[in-house]
Amino acid sequence: MKEKYPRHLRFKSIMNFRDLGGYRTRNNRTVAWRRVFRSGEFSRITREDYQKLKEEIKLATVIDLRSDFEVKRQGLGLLAQADLKYHNIPFIPDGGNREEDERRFRTFTNMGQFYMDIVRDKGYGKRINQAMEIIAGAENHPLVFHCAIGKDRTGILAAMLLSLVGVPDEDIIEDYTLSGPYMEELLEQINSDPKTAENVPQVPNYFWKALPESMELFLTTLRKEYGSIPGYLESMGSKDSLIERLKAALLA
């Protein structure tokens, strides 16, 4: 696939910022470039990086998937004063709480299992639909959605979004794995600072990876349990028109 724009956008203060454009759908359409992005959090954003977002990307909307706990602890940085539409939709209400994070991962051996465990919750499904409704509004573009590091909650939303507009699983899985190098870089930074390492939850090694089998398991199990990804969203209360509105807003 020849890329019209670079998929990875490099910032000094923002991690894992990527464009979701350029992917081909099964009926030979393309996800438009420079409309929807995925990313890690913005609490340390510099003024230089903020100007880049506004001038080069013309960012209009931010969907913050972090919990209240994380937002209070990490903050919004310059985004708190920014002229942007800001929506906080906490995909995991207690996410970022060390004890809860450690508890969640004790019984899993794969991130795909973790993703399925959380999306089965009706409240989680309602919040996914809420985020999709914002993404479906062309007046909200260009838009970025993010969590803390841009891999898991962001990965779930990106995977469902790409699937809904018709992108094949192999490209969805590939997009997920693009977070892998960022995770390696983050883990190296954490381990080099003992003070930072002390505050990081004790999670299994698989948490620090973006393995293709994790996303493959998630997509396969989701379809097995709900029939399809549209079937999942419908079971969680999505509007009948959502998928067509997403396609109209995102496909070129």
3D structure, described in words:
The protein is α/β, with parallel strands linked by helices. The chain has one domain (18-246): Protein tyrosine phosphatase superfamily (Protein-Tyrosine Phosphatase, Chain A, Alpha-Beta Complex), CATH 3.90.190.10. It is built from twelve helices and five strands. The chain has helices at residues 47-57, 68-74, 98-105, 111-119, 122-135, 153-164, 169-177, 180-191, 194-198, 212-226, 229-235, 242-250, and strands at 18-19, 36-39, 61-64, 85-88, 143-146. Strands 1-2-5-3-4 form a five-stranded mixed β-sheet, with helices on one face. Helix 7 crosses helix 10 (212-226) and helix 10 packs across helix 11 (229-235). The chain is globular and about 50 Å long. The two termini are 15 Å apart. The model has no long low-confidence stretch (mean pLDDT 91).
